[in-house]
Fold each of these.
Amino acid sequence: MTVAPASFRSVLEVRGLTVRLPERADRRFAIEDVSFEVAAGEIVCVVGESGSGKSVTAYTVMGLLPRGLVPVAGEVLLEGANLLARPAAELRRLRGRRMAMIFQEPMTALNPVLTVGAQIEEVLEIHTTLNAAERRARVIAAMREVALPEPEQLYHAYPHQLSGGQRQRVMIAMALILEPALLVADEPTTALDVTTQAQILALIRDLQRRHGTAVLFITHDFGVVAEIADRVVVMQHGRVVEQGPVREILFRPRHPYTRMLIAAVPGLTPPERPPVSKPPALVVRGLSKVFEERGWFGIRRRVEALRSASFAVRHGETVGVVGESGSGKSTLARCIVRLLEPTSGEVEVAGHRFGAGTRRIDRRLRRDVQIVFQDPYRSLNPRRTVGQSIIEGPMNFGVPKAEALARARSLLRIVRMDPDCLDRYPHQFSGGQRQRLCIARALALEPKVLIADEAVSALDVSVQAQVLELLDEVKRRFDLALLFITHDLRVAATICDRILVMRQGEVVEEGPTREVFATPRHPYTRALLDAAPGKGVIFGAASSACG
């Protein structure tokens, strides 16, 4: 490992950095007068809401700013050398050798037509003079260091054949294989379940300590901050509003914005909720789903993704479904709404039964069960106005256009959006606003059951809190049965009356949320709770008193 000369106080120094936005943007600068440092062997977390400038800061450091964003003031010093004054060719040499980046979504960062071994090896091929055998040995050693199972076999695997956690480990191996002085991690655990997230955070922390790497960690999750950070930089509207040691920021925040962010983080202690005694709106009986992969000579692979799931959700009740990736949560949701055809079992909605193998799904199921997905941008047609998207469902069920538009305007008021935005397109809204529009679209059909499938997992903590409050409000207003699927146990604690814990397609534990969190019976439930990031820190309402 190359050690920076003693004359450098920090591996990374950002001094008065300002990046200009294109003309007609909502503000003049993406980031303005940003200054902070990251020392060798230190993890500095940059936190803030969407639009705060944290990712722009990271991409400026790496020299990866998109066209139209221009640094106009300040310096970015890597081991004393100003990166903003370096030519593009030199920046390419530095990336990988002296600085590296882990991106948020490894599936989009990795090339789908190359094996993961070849993609890691490419870094060595570009930056070293090692021969093919030496490169392969180095790659396998790096894969072993990030705890990838059977690296000799995984070397030949393609990205789609790996789990999300394994793909993120490949990205970490690729970033650290040349032992760079600086590692930039841009939201690397946002889409991961709690156990995989805990493993990735522990891995980054362990590798950083062993290699003495300086880590700039971008996140909006204060649970992650509590788990991994040495120091914290808080950004709002492109400016640094507060920075300091992690304990000082978490327990004695000075700036109102920092206090708001910390107060918005859900706690792990569920509030007391009286049991809901209304009749069930959704009953699931023995629902199973088997996926079969067929080859030339019959069935080659058989996966039981869902195994005889049975439960009920009452009117006015929120039932949470938690578990790791691959536990069957989303398969369950898609089988209920018939986006997937279940192998066996039945679903009963408002007294109407829909069994597996039903050739023609009754229109009542399409109307009475609606779903809100994780990514609102992919859920809305980018070529249609939001008004067209909201009124499409009611009009398909015979509602006149004028009445459907009146209903859409009313729903927009309910989800706290301006009714005049019906003629705008999805790209003209923020992520939180798009999710509100998706909720309005789901409510337009006046359903009995609403399914939220990871509906807040990609949102900032403050926006997440607003959307959770909105979901709880519309559930009460319309007397909905809400099935809430999430990998975030803090979110589940905030909103759910009861909890279903799923593992490998089975419901392994069920009960009132407060009871399950306080005295989990199944070892798997205990493991999930123990893996929650920042478990020892009290977040939520109690934290609003801090500072």
Note: The mean pLDDT is 87.
Amino acid sequence: MPFRPPTPLFAIGLLVGACTGSVSLPGDPQGECELAQVPSAPSIVTPAGGELKQPGELIRFEASPAAPLSAETREAEFELFLLAGDQPTTKIWTGSLQTSGATLAVNLDEGSFEAGFSTLDAWQSYAVRSRVREGGAACQFSEWSGYQDFRLDDGSEALFNEDEIRDLEITLSPESFSAISAEALPPGCVPYSRNYYPGSVTFDGVTYDNAGVRTKGGCGSSRDLSGKASFKINLSDFGDGSSCPVTRRARGLKHLTVNNQVQDGSATHERLAYQLYDLVGVPVPRRAPIRVFVNNLGNPGVGPELWGLYLNLESIDRRFLERRYEGTAAEGMLYEGTYFCDLTPENKPADENGPETCFSKKFDVDCSEPALGGDPFTYAPLISFIDQIAALPNGGFYPAITNFVDFDAYLSEWAAETIMNHWDGAIFDIRNNYRVYHDPAANKWVVIPTGMDQSWNEGQRPIDPWVPANIIARRCLEEKACEDAFAARLKEVLTIFENANFPARAEAIRTQIAAEVAADPRRESGDFSGRVDATINFISNRPAQINAWLAQHGY
């Protein structure tokens, strides 16, 4: 039978009650059990289904009986299995306990590993099950519970601790330095690809020789290596010249993305924006401040040179998806949209093989193959998505759109972009800085926003939430029921925003990074403190502006 994790149970109380009488059980060494029936299979309470546990964290397993039969001796057994392809495979650990209390729980270190196993491995999925017995050893165990899955993280959470400023050092040969700089600036506001060139990268105390290094950024934020360039780094080994280098990871991270924040004089906008998205349930990258040093070996005796304060932003790659989705759900196709890129027929690739339009594929068959049950690494899923939107008739858009779009997340993003005046994102004006991801398990699409440096600005291209540019939002406002859903979500997100005290969050970032900003030799914007003040002023005034829009439209 295929593995189907049970629904997580977060708070289940034990029922008080007992059965009387006795029943003889075959093979019972003591002859009879005082209980007249066998207990029902329990449910796993802890860990929650799909939970991502951190290395070093206490691993605790807890079961809840369906209906306890006795207040006397209660026993529980737990078994832990490796999980592969949504199926439990090898049993690796067993734990048990006897208690007269209500809680049936055992810690990992209180059980025993099977031969050949001694610990849990990072980024491995596991499944736990339990059974219970009540009334003593003469009584019979219940059936086993369903399996509950969880995963042990790789430790990368620590790399995105926003309270800590880490260091990244990049060492480039003269040849790599020149080649990277020559490809740094795109030829206008158009999709643009760059090559990786080998360099030595030191991060989190480890040096990765022959890592791939390139710049990143569009027509507004890109800089060559004479200025404060942003970087994308692939930690894999590019030293042997292979087109598919051997994968290396820093606590699970294969890719590093460091943003220069040159379009945000306050150096707060990206962090604040991603924090709001986190609060309202929109999938976005993790992030943390970071110092970048660059050593150009073409300048003997100079370096490593401080290039300043950057933002370490989690790369949106397969590992990013695996953290947020389970199993096959993480094996979908991902596309990036840039510069006036909308989900409309004129932006469809000609066929599944391309060529790319304003959308580009983020996974390719060059170095990996699609997983069983996952999407093909082609444009076919995107073409189908655009066709589905176009096929919805006038008056029949909502709620039909919810059948193939994670519409709750979409409405949350629309509301959040409204609050932060993010005109450079997926919903408004430029329709830029976003990715669309297809979850093949649920067969639904989600929009993943990025590029938040142009947010939280009072007078910069002001947006109106009732005048979106994205086709999904425009179609939504054509139908009253969908407009009502957006207005309701805008109110909810505004309440979350107000309760989260974003002025205090901005002040905390200012305090943390003020010295780093002052020491930044490649910083382009002056008046750091004044820019933070302007951001806080915008945040403080925004609720009144949002409420005025809602009232104007009858909400």
Note: Residues 1-29 have pLDDT under 50 and may be disordered.
Amino acid sequence: MKFHKRHYQVTGFSGAVCFLFGAAYMLVKREFSLYVLLNMLLGAAMGGFYLYSNVKEVSKLFVSSGRRGAKNIAITTALVIGIVIAVNLLSNRLYFGRDLTRDKVSSISDYSQKAVQWIKQPIEILVFSTDKDNSVEKYLLDSYGFYNRRISYRFVDPERNPQLAQRYGVTKTGQAVVTYKDGFLLLETVTEEKLTNAITRITQSVKNFVYFLQGHGEHIVDDFNTNQGYGLLWNELKSENYFVFKLKFEPPNYYIPGNCTILIVAGPRRMFTAMEVKAVREFLENGGRVIFLLDPDVKTGLEELVTDWGIALENDCLLDVVFPSLIERAIAGMSGRKAQPRPVFQVMVNDFPDHEITAAMKEKAVFMSVARSMKPVEQKEVNLNLRVEPLAKSTNKGWSETHLDGLFTNAKISSDVFSRRGPLNVALLSTRGTPESNSRMIVIGDSDFVNNEYFNQLYNRDFFMNCLAFISAQASHISVRPRNLFASRLDYDPVAMSRIFTLSVLVFPQLFLIAGIAIWWLRR
């Protein structure tokens, strides 16, 4: 068969198309597949054939004055292609993106980014799947690779590689294995939370032992069945590589184990004995770290210890007040009584002063129920070794009720509801010692906000876990954890909700009904 000049041109054009499609696939998908290899080979073969068959024609582009226009076009095209390839290669190395969703559900969280950025040794993630479409998992795993090039992954078909699956104990598809050095961890599913926790556990060499004090009516840390239990917190602590234990003082041995990194006293309901308080005090004085979750209207015997560390507990209860609407006032007036404002024990905490613990929680909120306020002790003499810092405050709509007998017995509040308005401190940090060697105490005026009922409300989990990470000197754990996608909603205060209900359920339907009757009557 005799080739015409147009045949050579078609061959050259086809070769260029094959080469460009192969290069584009590799740059976009970031993988060298059989498709890329075939396109590269075909492109090179066709392009080489075209150049070999048209040496004279190609050379004229660069030597003939009549072909300067074609020469310029060829050079410009080559430069554009080169720039496109360079930009793609650069973007592959220096990735930058911005997740515009409200809860950052289209990218890995700040917590995950911090957890993987410091890793210096290679990590490989094996996903055992028979599904040909793993786009969701690939998108997630690519995100980890963007923040640390030492993290790689591959998909393994357990039916074609039964020995590899058996080696890691894989029993069903969808499971994944995180390998690091000589160890590995098996995951049931591939989610951001599970991956980040597995990477943290397998790479972290520091061990933190958390002890929950029991025996004074505190929340039970391994209780998963009741709202007051701490079972969800227990699981969260273990997933972030904390070793969690329960501790109960057994007379006459009042001591805290030597391996205790953090002691947590969560909502005690009965008094501590003098020996128990002494044990906690000595633990702090020897460089210990303690988190106190102390509810209102409860005497624990720890008040003096907390005061010695620069924190004064208020004998109050924070609450929001719902003022009666116009309709409620009218109904009450017709019955000869006066509508009274109603107290609400659940309060929003969204004022976080500048601190390492709350740096990632700006414009976020914590939901607390039956909380107390506190304040730094006014020191007569400056103590350079003691520093007290605010961590969280109630909103300016909050109210501090000091008449607790009437509040908890009859749900009545005092007449002067404006004398102690927020913002008021609900969490304080006290540090004693030098920056290199110090003791730390965090006091929070509510123990319910991390129980099973409220743990996943708003950003309760993040606030508490950040407090824990700070006092255990794990800066990489201070962040906002992965969020779950949920329906968008607007949060209103009780007064606004009352007005919305009145307008939407009562006023507007009433006006429409009146207008309808009027129009029907006029047209009958």
Note: The longest helix spans residues 494-523.
Amino acid sequence: MDHTEHSDRPTDVERFTFTTDGPWQVHREDLTWARGLPVLRHSVRRQVPTLTSRRRLPPLPRLAVVAGRLGAALVPWALRDRRAGGSRSVAGLSRRLRVAAERLGPTYIKLGQIISSGEGLFPAELVEEFKLCRDKVRPEPWDQVRRVVEEDLGRPIEAVFSSFDPTPIAAASIAQVHAATLRTGEDVVVKVQRPTIRQRVEQDLRVMSWIAPLLVGRIPVAALANPPALVELFAETITEELDFRLEAENMLDVAEVFALLDQRGFVIARPHPDLVTRRVLTMERLRGFEFDDLDALQSAGIDTEAVIRTGMAGFTEGCIVHGIFHGDLHGGNLFVLDDGRIALLDFGITARMTELERSAFLRLMLCGATGDIPGQIAAFRDLGALPADTDVDDVIRSLGLDQAPVDPTSLDQEQLVGEIQRITKELLGMGARLPKILMLYVKNLVFLDGAIARLAPDLDLVGEISNLSVRLVTVHGARFAADLGIQVDGFTVDTSAIKAGLGVVDDDSDTLTYRELQARRDMIRRRLESRR
């Protein structure tokens, strides 16, 4: 219903996917804290090469601490676990690195949290280990929290809040979140940055950049995200997280994009019009069900398959139409409201594509749906996953993509391991790398994969991807044609290409549920583990 029928409806919900009964309204043009943010964002990004360039000497005191912790992890591994080889070697190293990260403090824990979301990008043993350090950072003392809030807001905490819980709701590596109530009566959450985290991050990035090249080829946990590249990716994400004004702008941008796309199945919390600074972010408080609490969702009568469809559609459409998406989806960063809408939290890591990247990403999606392999390789190249002068035909020949696809379940242990090793070697020889945009996208796909397993295991993946592809072309076809310089009138989905992309070849069925796909993955995993 429109605004004329409901005069009490906040006008900002027309522009943003906010709650309809918000505690205040956001008028973007009036936000004093938002002035000059494009310049600030550009300035922050320009700092990354400086922070990650390898100097003759990094901060020596911090280097000594980091080297000591890493040495304590790597030496026992080299003397014991490494000799055992296989999964025991990787598992032992992963455990020792996780312990070292926890002892080194918030910056390294943050790096570990990023790795913990990288299933499929890093060895499973490393991912599982670093999941153990997620959200287990010791909170700052209350007097330090009070000092940051009062310094940034410029007044005593009692002058702004009638109550402020000293015990945080959550404590993460960069900041911690407290429940509070404004003196005007609104319930809010307040994100407060750790007081010395900026200096520590800058020191640690310089140390990481100095150490990373020494680890290349020496530890079996890198794959395409080799240590120097991983440090660069980490720097790109964490530097923007250190200014909460940028995070608040991310919240507004994503909420505005969802509104433009009419993706009203998502809700973003309103940042406060006045109480946002570099180190303090005040926002309205939202409440709901944990995303993976299947029993609670079903008891509340929420259609969990509809929740998954909302997540898939909103995530994909935001990427390819506007080039922006939440870059760190995991169970702690979203929940489900009692009406089935998805509330997104924590926008510190938000992916923003250039027009070239968005165009490449759009081609990647469309070519994937139609089975256009050369188009997919070219899109990967333009996203930065391959050098700019890469010959597409040469990649296709080297990887065997000009041959009939092979179902991985038809390979025995030796063939499967050999094929993985061959492809990895070929990619490394081509100079393949994992660019930030692609890493964040894959991380989110991994999260959605797990969410489907939990909330909608009988969802027909082929049907959902086909329907989503057709809808995108139907709704945005004119824009896609203008962006790519091609006609999409004759666009048709190739379901066999979708299934091949999921690793399914020798199957004539037009459907594929997640449960069926997982059974195939389990078979492949067992073969690989047996080979180890």
Note: Residues 41-134+197-238 form one domain.
